[in-house]
Predict the 3D structure of the following.
Amino acid sequence: MNEIVIALAIGVLAGAGTWLLLRPRTFQVVIGLSLLSNAVNLFIFSMGRLRVGAAPIVDGSMPVDPAQYADPLPQALVLTAIVISFAMTALLVVVLLVARGLAGTDHVDGRGADEA
Amino acid sequence: METALAERGPDVGRARLPPGGPHAGPAASREAWCTTGKRAASRVPMPDPILLLVILALPFAGAVGALFFRVNARNAESWLALSCALLAFGLVLGFYPGVVDGGVVRWNLEWIPALGLSFSLRLDGYAWMFALLVTGIGALVVVYARYYMSADDPVPRFFSFLLFFMACMLGVVLAGNLIQLVLFWELTSLFSFLLIGYWHHNAAARESARMALTVTAVGGFALFAGVLLLGRITGSYELDVVLASGDLIRADALYRPALFLIVTGALAKSAQFPFHFWLPHAMVAPTPVSAYLHSAAMVKLGVFLLARLWPALAGTDAWMFTVGLSGLVTFVLGAFIAIFQNDLKGLLAYSTISHLGLITVLLGLNSQLALVAAVFHIMNHATFKASLFMAAGVIDHETGTRDMRRLSRLVHYMPLTATAAMVAAAAMAGVPLLNGFLSKEMFFSLALDVQTPLPFVGRALPWVAIAAGMFGVAYSLRFIVSTFLGPDPQDLPRQPHEPPRWMRFPIELLVLACIAVGVLPNLTVRPILDVAVGALLGADAPDYQLALWHGFNLPVMMSTLAFVGGILLYGLLHRWLANGIGRVPFLPPVDGRRVFARLVVGGRQAARHLEHRLASRRLQVQLRWIILLAVAAACVPLLRRDLVLRGSMPFAAGGDGWLLAFSWLVGGACALMAAVQAKFHRLAAVVFAGGAGLMVCISFAWLSAPDLALTQLLVEIVTTVLLLLGLRWLPKRVPFIPTRAGALAALPRRALDFTLALAVGGGLALLAYAGMTRPPPSGSISRFFMEQALPAGGGSNVVNVILVDFRGFDTLGEITVLALAGIALYSLLRRFRPSLESTRLPLQQQLQSPAMHADDMLVPGVLMRLMFPVMLMLALYLLLRGHNRPGGGFVAGLVLAVGFIVQYMAGGTRWLESRLRVRPLQWMALGLLLAVGTGIGAWFFAHPFLSSHALLLELPLLGEVHLPSAVFFDFGVFTLVLGATLLMLIALAHQSLRGERQSKQF
């Protein structure tokens, strides 16, 4: 059940993100990238398989049985990815703002044409 | 080192044995090979092998040092360079006991043991001979260059490049590993480029430098590929192994491609046909460079390598046809073209090409005696040609021209230089009693009985040899007669006279060497040649004789024929050449340089054409293609097998799926609304996107990822703040009703985008579902992390232990990226010029008075200020417990950053910054230093970089505290994340202040 929901969630986030990525206005691209990175993070996380109530925090009993816990590896990957995607969004916003200041338009190509 | 040597020695020795069984000869050679070091040590002290590294490092150090002198410090520069070269020469000479009788000196340093790569230096007799040439002629060229370079030339650059070049040459010669050899090989091309282009104000110099670099570097690429193939065949890049497995290599299916590639590289470097055209153009370089790089050293590298790998590669018909044929064509062609050059250096350049061709032919004959002759001629050519180039430089220097049609009777004005140059030219022609005669004679006798699969080639070779010898005599004669003899010169740019004593010295020394070798070969050159050939051929080295007179035999007849023919040829052409326009008769007027330029331009045009046809500069088009291709690539594996969507794993137990489903009903709606609203209602889009992010956060929390949930929550907050800060600078956009025609025109594009979005979303959803319902792979490294987190990492929060301990190096990289992004953003904003319409205060703020604004925030402001210590506390709490419970440096840093942002909101930028020091850049630096410092700290405990170290402390009150060094690393992460996040937000926020200032000016 959880699996279906998360799969759909990934699909919706990725679809909306892709659509926005292809739009001509810079702000749309920023939001699209943000949605898309959420989708990708969720996707990578889901590849560790879903577990409920099994946070990878060992309780000190030895030996550890990995089957008792959620997979920590994708979580570690995604944690840094979340922070990096923030940095990327911030940099993109500033690049686009500077480009807008230089070009006078917020079209992704720096030209005012093509209202789509 | 010693043990490694002893271990490897016998193996290689055994591999060297011919398949026929251990003859007495090779066995003896193995004996000698393994024990020479010891035996020699008892006789003459053998230098420590580490001195090999000193030989290599000396010119490198000198080159760096040379950069720091004054621009016109000619004397200091040449003293430095001379002492480097002489010291290296002396050290090489000192290794004689180590290389005599087939001995090999080695020095090894493990480099990447996992890939079987080591930095290894290897000196055998052949390398020893070459190293002597490189350092010896290098020293002479340095002395000469002191007087050649004018006071206006920036000499630090020149001498530094020259020393760098010498170091790289030594690197090639001393390389014990083929990869290393290629590396230094390419570096010599680079410094040749820099030296040819030394007078870079001259367009021809720049163009020639580019051409030389392109040809030799492309050759270098080929060589690299060939070497990789060799490594694949033999399983090692070590020269020892490769040289010992000649039979294995020649029998391999990859032999021909490897041979072709390596020979291409060598021919390009040695300016052999069809790559010969770059060398004459390289003559725009200062003459010391021509003498050193383009006659004695760099162009010899190609033949050096061919001889070096001769035991491993030669002996087949393929070798004979590639190497021998190219050499033969070059030998004849170069000599013929040289006759018709009017420029002294041009004549010498083509003669160099021709002589290199001769060496290549000798190498291609597949005869051991020919190899001896080739090595001998390498030495001979270096001596007479370097002196001839230097003499040409002197003539240019003292008369102001190198045109042989203007020069005349210089023997009257500079008798000493002229005599030396005439003797060297005679050696070039192969006059008896000079060194050139000996090697030419050897070639003639070899040409008479050559073994080729094509009999007519064997029959023709002596005649071709005579023809080339004839041309050689003719151009040498032209060099002598037109420059030094004849009537008095008319209207020379300068009045010629003898050059300074020490400028002449290198020429005289080299000419003396030519005579000494020519008259007393067995006393002078024989020991060196024996050592070099012994290293190449071992016990198979043929018995050869260096004698002035072998009796009246066929080779002598051939020589005589060549002399008579050459003199006659010059006599016939004499008048025509003196007035000639420099065109070469009988040959199609193909200019290599022009062909090369056309190829380059053609390539560029083709690329531009292709780009014009296939590429777009529009972002949307590019993105569309990227996404389309990504979707297509993802679909390819689906076509091949029937895919079962639902895997075998049962759904995750526990929890009511409906709750998650409901939150994603909201989350999905938020994502879709964000997509719809992002164009005209940006604020709404920010809110919706935040909503979707929150649902991601809830999912993490729900699905056993507390650390992710915390991080996601905080990042969602700072992202929202960031977007809100950015919104202000975007143009206002009002919804409009598109015209019917406009909507229709946009329809196909939008339909395509919609399909793409649907494909990406649907595809990812299906992929995720298929993945999640399959059992996890069994060999995952997660198991190790789970089991070792507590015992080895000292923390029970496995995710955090992975981040700061197991994969600490990755995290270090990631926080570095974060810091870089912050700095990039900061520097972009320093020069930020917003568009004019955005510089005014926003409409809402214009309506408010400042007093109203302050009152608005009174109560929340106080509350927010009160929150600051609490948030600080929370951040520290999360940081400290992170190793064992959810938390850690990333989360803590974000929390404190939010704490600061709240204070900015409450009090405003000016209020806050007058009361609190906010220094995000310094914090970032501190964090990075802390993280790197923790990593380096491990070195002091003799552990690799970043390995964690646990400290057990007895503290009052707290009792026993377990303090892993990873905690310090996490503290670095915390400080850096705090700094970077704040820097990004504050830098953007500060723009509003600047905007206000600017709008007041309008």
User: Anything to note?
Assistant: Residues 1-42 of chain B have pLDDT under 50 and may be disordered.
